[in-house]
Amino acid sequence: MTMAETMSGPTFVTRAQVITSDTSVMRGHGTYQEDKAIVSAVAGVVEQVNKLITVRPLRARYAGEIGDVVVGRITEVGQRRWKVDVNARQDGVLLLSSVNLPGGVQRRKSESDELQMRKFFTEGDMLVAEAQAFFQDGAMSIHTRSLKYGKLRNGVLVVVPPSLVLRSRSHFHTLANGIEVIIGLNGYIWVCKRASKAPEQMEPDELYADVNEEIGQQERDTIARICNCLRGMADRQISIDYTKLAAAYEASLGHSAKELLQANVMETVLDTAMTRM
Amino acid sequence: MSLGLISVVERDFVERGVDLDLRTDGRGRNDYRLPRMEMNLVAQSDGSARCQLGGSTDVLVSIRCELGQPEPTTGDRGRLAVSVECAPSASQQLEGRGADELNTELAEALSRALTGPRSGLNLRQLCIVENMHCWILNIDAIVLDLGGNVLDALLYAARAALADTRVPGTQVQSLDEGVDFEVDDDINHAAWLEHASNVPLCVTAYKIGAGYVLDATLTEELCSSARLHVSVNPAGQVCAAQKNGYGSIEPSLLITMLQAAKEKAMYLLEVQEEQIQQHKRTLLEKQTRGESVKRPSIFM
C-alpha cells in the first residue's frame, strides 16, 4: 500500500521516513532503498508517476531549465566570461559572446571588449538573463542577448526559496505606481522603478551605466511594500506568481509598509488576499 | 564582518533611502524590528534565551555554571567565559573556516560588554572559597541565522539568559586539613544571579551615506561605512561605545547617533524587562502547580 495512493492531496515526508514497502514501484530522485522499503532521502512532497516514486524537496537549491528567466549577481570576472550567482549548486556562466555590447546588437567580440569587461559587468552587479544551455558538469550558461535582459538598476533584491516561484508566461510585471517586479525562477526577485526610457531608446553606454534614476518617496514606499509582501509570502510558504503578489499588494494597502513587518498584520493581509483569489 | 557582494546601484538606492528616512523595508532610520524572545529553552543549561529580529536574525545563548579556580588577582570573584559560534547554516560564507573571524569578533565584543565592572554583575556572588574555588559562568552563544545587527541580538539574548540563570547553592565546611564544600542539588536553594537587571543592552547605529540607521538589515550592513555599538544600562548610563568599520563619523553625527541609540536602548530595556517578568511569572505558576523544575546543570 503506497501512501501516495491511499491519501488524497500532497503527502509530506521527512528524511528517513518509509514511503512504501511495495516492491512493484521504482525509486526515483530523493529516495533510497532500505530492506525492500523505499525511504525518503529529503523532507518534501511525494510525487508518483505510474510506477516511479520521487520526493520533491521543500528546501533545495535552484535546478534550472533552459529558457528560465533568472536574476543573478556577478561574483567573478574571468577570461571571456563572468561567473554569476544564480542560487544554484554552482555559479552560472555568462560568456562575453552571450551579451549585447554597445554599438551594434550582433557584432563580433574583439580583444578590446575582453579588456574592458568590467565596464559592462563588475563584481556585485545584478542582472536578469535567460538560461541558455547546461555544461557537462551541470553549470548553467546564461545569456542576455535581448533588450529584455541586462543590467538591473533602480531597485532592491528580495530572496525567496526557489521552490515557491511558479513558472508563468511572463516574469516581467508592472505593479502600481510604475514599479516593476522581475520574478526570477531561481528565487531572486528584483523590485524596481521602471526605467523612464525603454531599452531600445537607450544610448549604448546607458545600457551598462551604474547610475540610478531619481526615485521619489511614493515609489520607494511602494517598493518597500512589495518587498515586505514577498518576504511575508515566503515566510508562510505561499507560492509566488504575479496574481498572488498583486492580490497581496492590494490587500496590504490598508496598512503602512512599515506595519507589514509585524507578523500579525502580515497574517491578516495574506489571509484576505488568499480568500479574495 | 562583510558577507557577500553588493552593486553600486543597490548601495546608491539604500543611501538615498536613508537620506529620505525611508528604508528598503519601509522603516524609518530609528525604527527597530521588535525582538521576539523565548527563555529557558535549553534543558542542559542553568539559563538560556533565544532572540529573533524580524524573523531573520536568530541567536541562542546558553549559560552553564562550572566549578573552577578564580584568577590570582581577583581571588574573591568568579569569572565569565564567553564564546560565540556562527552556524554554517546561517550563511554560505560561514562554511568551513569562514566563520572563525566573525566568531572571534563577536565573542570579543560580547565579552567586553559582559565582563568587567560595566556589566553591573556582582561577581563576588560566584566565589565559593576565596582564592580556591569559584563558579565560572560559561556563556555560549550560537548564531542560527544572520539577518543583520547580530551583536544587538546577542546581547539582548545574553542579558535575558543572565536573568534566567540560577547559581547552585554551596555549603562550605572547615576541616582539619583545610576547607571543603558541597554543592546543593535542590534548585530552590540556587540563587538568582545578583544585579542581572543592571546588565546593559547594546544598540548599534550604522552610518550609511551621510546619515545613520538603527538595526540594519544584511544589505544595509553591506552599505555602511562605520558602526557605533552603544551599551546602555537601565540607569540610562552609556556603559560603552565602540566604533567599527573603515569610515569616519563627524562629531555632530556621532552625538546624534549616540543619542538615538541611547533612547532606543532605554525603550528596549523596558520591553525586555516586561518579557522577563512574564517568563518569571509563568515559571512561578508552574512551580505552584507542582510541576517539576529542572535541577542545576552540574548534576546532569
UniProtKB/TrEMBL annotation, chain A:
CDD domains: KH-I_Rrp4_eukar (cd22525), S1_Rrp4 (cd05789). It is found in: Nucleus. It holds the Pfam family ECR1_N. Residues 17-49 form the Exosome complex component N-terminal domain. One of its GO terms (biological process) is exonucleolytic trimming to generate mature 3'-end of 5.8S rRNA from tricistronic rRNA transcript (SSU-rRNA, 5.8S rRNA, LSU-rRNA). Keywords: Exosome, Nucleus, RNA-binding, rRNA processing. Its main location: nucleus. Gene3D superfamilies: 2.40.50.100, Nucleic acid-binding proteins (2.40.50.140). InterPro entries: Exosome_cplx_N_dom (IPR025721), Exosome_RNA_bind1/RRP40/RRP4 (IPR026699), KH_dom_type_1 (IPR004088), KH_dom_type_1_sf (IPR036612), NA-bd_OB-fold (IPR012340), S1_RRP4 (IPR048565). This is Uncharacterized protein. It comes from Syncephalis pseudoplumigaleata.
TrEMBL record, chain B:
Residues 32-168, 199-263 form the Exoribonuclease phosphorolytic domain. Keywords: Cytoplasm, Exosome, Ribonucleoprotein, Ribosomal protein. It comes from the Eukaryota. GO terms for molecular function: mRNA 3'-UTR AU-rich region binding. InterPro entries: ExoRNase_PH_dom1, ExoRNase_PH_dom2, ExoRNase_PH_dom2_sf, Exosome_comp_Rrp42_subfam, PNPase/RNase_PH_dom_sf, Ribosomal_Su5_D2-typ_SF. It is found in: Cytoplasm; Nucleus, Nucleolus. CDD domains: RNase_PH_RRP42 (cd11367). GO terms for biological process: exonucleolytic trimming to generate mature 3'-end of 5.8S rRNA from tricistronic rRNA transcript (SSU-rRNA, 5.8S rRNA, LSU-rRNA); nuclear mRNA surveillance; nuclear polyadenylation-dependent rRNA catabolic process; rRNA catabolic process; TRAMP-dependent tRNA surveillance pathway; U1 snRNA 3'-end processing; U4 snRNA 3'-end processing; U5 snRNA 3'-end processing. Belongs to the RNase PH family. Transmembrane segments: none annotated. It comes from Syncephalis pseudoplumigaleata. One of its GO terms (cellular component) is nucleolus. This is Ribosomal RNA-processing protein 42.
